[in-house]
Amino acid sequence: MNKIIIITIMTMLIPISFSAIPENIACTWEAPGVCPIDHVVLNAHGSPIFHDVFSGALISSQVDLGNAITRIPIDGNYNEVLCCDPSKGILEFWYDSNPNCGTGYSIVHLYNETNSRVAHEDAYNPAIHNHTICVEYTEAFSHLDLYVSNQEVFAQLYEDMGYTCLFRFSSNLNAHIGDCDSLFAPAPGTPYKYSVWMRIKENVDNLKCNTDCTSKLDGRVYSECSQKIRECRGITPLCDGSLYGSWVDIDKDLDGIMDAELQCSDPWNLTRAKVFSQDLVMINTTDECPNVVKETYSAMIDDQIVTMNVFICSKNINNEN
Amino acid sequence: MGKAINNNKAQNFSADILVVVIIILFGVIFLVINKINQENEGNLNELVDEATVESKIIYDNLIEKEILNSESKVDVDKLLSLSEAEIKEELNIKNDFAIVFEKDGKLVKIDPENNITCVGSSEIIVNNVPCKEN
After folding, report:
1. Is A308 an interface residue toward B (CB < 8 Å)?
2. DSSP label of A231
3. How far apart are CA A275 and CA A156, in angstroms?
């Protein structure tokens, strides 16, 4: 009795990022009144994952900026505060009528102080959106990097480079916000398209580089080392925060799809097709291999922990029957 | 009258024997099926045990050949030159085998430029591509 065995392997996601990079901004959802005023990013309603506790449906939240002095929500239904704390320096969030935030960074724009949806920099209308959530960071030897990602592949890159996710929002205009796990539908739905990422980085003046373009502080590659070491010219910022010699995703044909990898090491331009595909593993066998036994082991490829499967074709049952 | 009573007794006796025979038959069938199942289960367990032992031997050999180092890092170039047939002969392994990597359930391409996702017996097919034999 010959038969083909099909095994589909769907291992639960175990996110593995560059955990060696210390988390330098920590963001949590708190109850109103717990978070220091300057660290309040915004108020939202619902549970931290923004699912309706009664129906289980996704309800994602609008935004309440709260009282100008206490930051306590204007609308009592807003029971979750996004609170971000830096490991060093002074991090301050505030709400401004100036969409450029003066010396700070703008994050998103709103049309009201409460029950407001948010707009991305690309789509906001100054005539309607008269509130902006701003952030500024002050410290002698470091600065703040802020990115608002509009693609999931970029969000993954920021996570790999040690950035902290603050929150996600659903579109570039009239958007709901949610925490960083927010999905358009119950799992495994797609994530909210836009995400806000921050990281504190050493100032170039303070950055001390090894000859291989890694920082003496954390041993990671920094494109800013090109300002100090001639041989480091040509390093793409995509390598920032990665280990020397590791591979990062790139969009080789500039079509918006990260379809190749670049090696973050001298000569800094070596590319290849992607090793880590998005294809689920599907195992078939020929008739000569009627029974398969799988044993798994842990291994590392390109500094990533992977599962090594050893498949053994066991032929005896078939032969005996 | 007496004959009729004797006939009834004979009929009852035959029915009793029939019931006993049927019960015994069921018992025998049950015992035979049970025995076959036990043998199949025994065979299956034996095969799984055998495969487990063989995969451990292969894993140890990968370390010995420095395809895997002490930190479990994979030397991809050495892996790509691995000969399944030679290893089977060297280690006296009778079953075919193949090595496949995955990360979070997604396929890891050992040699993405040449679309090689698996090393070992071509009887094992990964995402519609037979494993690379050397």
Report:
1. yes
2. G
3. 16
CA B69 to chain CA centroid, nearest Å: 30
Parallel, antiparallel, or unpaired for β A164-169 and A194-202? antiparallel
Tell me chain B's radius of gyration from C-alpha atoms.
Answer: 30
Helix, strand and coil in chain A, % to nearest 5: 10, 40, 50
Say how far apart CA B131 and CA A317 lie, in whole Å: 23
Terminal Cα-to-Cα distance of chain A (whole angstroms): 7
Q: For B109, which of A13, A277, A308 is closest by C-beta distance?
A: A277
Find out whether A292 and A315 touch, Cβ atoms under 8 Å.
no
In tens digits, chain A (321 residues) has pLDDT values of: 444 443 333 233 223 233 334 458 999 888 888 899 999 999 988 754 555 444 444 457 899 999 988 889 999 888 889 999 998 899 999 999 999 999 999 999 999 999 999 999 999 999 999 999 999 999 888 889 899 998 877 787 788 777 899 999 999 999 999 888 887 776 667 788 899 999 888 788 888 899 999 988 878 899 989 988 888 988 988 898 888 998 888 887 777 777 888 999 999 989 888 898 888 999 999 988 888 999 999 999 987 889 999 999 987 654 443
Residues 6+ apart with CB under 8 A from B5: none
Q: DSSP assignment of B45-94, as one string?
A: HHHHHHHHHHHHHHHHHHHHTTSB-TT-BB-HHHHHT--HHHHHHHHT--
| Residue of chain A minimizing CA distance to B47 | A314
Concatenate the DSSP letters of all residues of A131-194 into one string: EEEEEEEE-SSEEEEEEEESSHHHHHHHHHTTPEEEEEESSSSSB-EE-TT-BSSTTTSPBPSE
The alpha carbon of residue A166 and the mean position of all alpha carbons in its chain are separated, in whole angstroms, by 9
Mutation choice for A interface testing from B71, B84, B107 by most A CBs within 10 A: B107
Which residues of B fall below an 8 Å CB-CB distance to A?
43-44, 47-48, 50-52, 54-56, 58-59, 68, 71-74, 76, 95-110, 112-113, 120-128
Report ipTM for this prediction: 0.75
Terminal Cα distance for chain B, rounded: 92
CA neighbor of A19 nearest in space, from A304, A222, A307: A304
**Which of A280, A300, A312 to substitute to test the interface with B, most B CBs within 10 Å?**
A312
The distance of Cα A205 from the centroid of its chain, to the nearest Å, equals 27
Residue B132 DSSP class: B
